[in-house]
Amino acid sequence: MPLSRSLSMTSLSGVLPSWEDDELPVEDLLLFEVAWEVTNKVGGIYTVIQTKAKITADEWGENYYMIGPYFEQNFQTQVEACEPPNPTIRKAMNTLIENGCQVHFGHWLIEGSPYVILFDIASAAWNLERWKGDLWQTCNIGLPYHDREANDSLILGSLIAWFVNKPNVICHFHEWQAGPGLILSRSRKIPMATVFTTHATLLGRYLCAGNTDFYNNLGRFNIDKEAGERQIYHRYCLERAAVHCAHVFTTVSEITAVEASHMLHRRPDVVTPNGLNVKKFSAMHEFQNLHSTSKARIQEFVRGHFYGHLDFNLEKTLFFFIAGRYEFSNKGADIFLESLSRLNYMLRVRNDVTVVVFFIMPAETNNFNVESLKGQAVRKQLWDTAHTVKEKFGKKLYDALLKGTIPDMNSILDRDDFTIMKRAIYATQRHSLPPVTTHNMLKDSTDPILSNIRRIGLFNARSDRVKIIFHPEFLSSTSPLLPMDYEDFVRGCHLGVFPSYYEPWGYTPGECTVMGIPSVTTNLSGFGCFMEEHVSDPAAYGIYVMDRRFRSADDSCNQLTQFMFSFCQQSRRQRIIQRNRTERLSDLLDWRYLGRVCVSAVPAIHFISLMRGRVHSPFYICSSSSDSMTIFDTWFSHFIQIYFLKVTIAFNFKYIYKNIFT
């Protein structure tokens, strides 16, 4: 049964631009991609839309727009403001601005330079209570006043439903934060095609964080009860409503498709694995050179961080890392720390290799800690001292050789030089252990990583062969402490470790793969399952897949420890060969390849003959049962499958749209 239009949405129609008067030709079919992470880095969705932007913009050109929330700092640093080239877009923006809602437009400064339309949430907050009433009247979902994220998503969704009010439009919504826009657009019967992609189910993330045996009990959960107990029932309702309102529902991996079937009661229509923009080098040694250069920069940081305790050989030191959202159990940081404790014992007994492990997970801090900054200052001072003495030594040696004599090494350096060097050595003395974290943590006593470090006793002591550095902030080349971008940092490491229990896809091991860096993943991540399906022996190519589904936690921990210990036993030549083999898998993760692997579409001729003339069919909200979809919904399902093929493979389907809409 179709839902009635809400009162305030109906009242807005009087101030909306008349799209019928400005009807665009079929060639100007518009694609809007909506996500909370447009220009706003929070997690993996940012990487999805950022890497997909180029291939989409190349095909759709000026008809492709990204929509998201406006954050002043992000806009100033990532967006080049400009005027919309499309007059109807400009007219719709002006209408919102005239009604007190600020809208910003520009080029997002990433590869492909797509247009972005960013809505200022704060400027439209005055209408929040009214829009809450609309949402309740539309689908009986109420939002509590204290959930700011849900309220902000409703404001964004209402602005989108206000803004996008024309036919010949495809809207692709990512995650539950964009869900209200889809729900309200469908309730207003706007004749546009809608796609909803879930990158992880909301309840699944919460359940896994609560240490439940999630994947072996998918069919046994009381969904409503579990969501209510975690006080996210309203968010879950938004997510589920968006899933059932969408013409096409997609997700990023088969394991998440199974999860969504149970959690959201709808099987995804299309599985679209996440890809990356893979840049191939003309020569194999080029990416190896980049690894060497970035590794040298990490070594410089380590020299400063461990000053006074640098009694290990950096040439025999390996750099491991884990990165991502600070979800301690979901990302596998718990099992990783326990495995590091066991690895430390094995290396102390049987090996002379040292492992420095970086935890790159953003947490609440108030600044860098003094010891970390002091270490880098001491390192720089030592470098300046050594450089000064080297210059004097080199000049005297040069002069002596010009005279045809071998200089006396005892006289080539005077007493002042020795005094300077002794002072520099004394400056490196420290009476405390190198810090395990680079920042002052706001919740030091209760922080999960720090608490477990205290439990296992890895405090960077001289006797420890495993050293830990917790960097609770995203990496940046402008940082005074570790001035490296994430990509450069990954290239400089030897192994990425991502033993996630809940990872619908897993961009971090994928990024390692395209840079030729071996990684550890699990059979509960979309990436791990994808590699096991497409590569006969992933470990031979530097992709170590842990079993976290059918083994106990202790067995999984032992398996991870063995993976890391075996890696530590490799020679430098063996690691170089393995990096070459890992880099060869990068084509599997290219957006262009994934389009051919995962996207299904109906034949174009059959599509045109079957769907011609049905653009103005009735437009209904989908219920929980797929049988309730109208013929229009079925049409758009095929339509969006063609859209996915168009985006990922970049075939030209414009003649198809021309035949459909004429």
UniProtKB/TrEMBL annotation:
Transfers the glycosyl residue from UDP-Glc to the non-reducing end of alpha-1,4-glucan. Its EC number is 2.4.1.11. It comes from the Eukaryota. Pathway: Glycan biosynthesis; glycogen biosynthesis. GO terms for biological process: glycogen biosynthetic process. Keywords: Allosteric enzyme, Glycogen biosynthesis, Glycosyltransferase, Phosphoprotein, Transferase. It holds the Pfam family Glycogen_syn. One of its GO terms (cellular component) is cytoplasm. This is Glycogen [starch] synthase. InterPro entries: Glycogen_synth. It is an enzyme of class 2 (transferase). The lineage of its organism: Eukaryota, Metazoa, Chordata, Craniata, Vertebrata. One of its GO terms (molecular function) is alpha-1,4-glucan glucosyltransferase (UDP-glucose donor) activity.
